[in-house]
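Researcher: Good morning. I'm working through a list of sequences from a screen, and I'd like to move beyond sequence-only analysis. For each chain I'm collecting a predicted structure so we can compare shapes side by side. This is the next one on the list. No need for commentary yet; just the structure.
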Amino acid sequence: MTESLRELDRRRFVRFPVAVPVIGRAARGGELELRGTVRNVSGGGLMAEFAIQVQHGSTVYLTLEAGEGPLPVEGRVLWVDHPGERVRHGVAFPDPKGYAFGLQLFLSEYRGAAVRTAPEPAESFEIWLLRRVRLAVEAGEVPESLFPELRDEVQAAEEQGTDAGRAVVVRQVADLAGIDRKLAAEVLDTIEAQRTVTGEMLKYRIAEAWLESQRGNLRT
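Model: Good morning. Structure tokens for this chain:
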């Protein structure tokens, strides 16, 4: 696959970095048993690494061992790259699954990121998040600078008359996926438009996943 085609693929779908074990088979040129790791995922497809090479154009039937249980998917190999010991395969889904698929699979990796501190009655999301971050700072889990940074962001959103909770979640999705905030906002718009997705609980899960990712920023 040419670099220009890969860039077009990246722009079309927001890709979330993951490290999800995958097993399956390829159904072209004979049956091939597959075992490897999915390295990124989007609503349009995924990139998986296998020890063997699957022929370009092959249909693959995969089972992703996600944190919330096995997830079967089907796709077609669009490109193959062999930079090292493992062979990378770009797999496209027959029908795009939407932003929610990639984000929810990404969040499923954070098994320890279930909502650890339940919201108080009538407590807004942003107030809960500030309280949650303060507790994490006091426990020495995340950098001390995280709390004032987040507090200032909430205050700035309130002064501008915008939804502070949404502004914070947009920032978190942007940080987690490595995308700009405009694109992160589009991702959330698409997810919230799907009635099958519980947007309110998703916000809390995104926040916990983001907070867990910040633990790697502690200076030793």
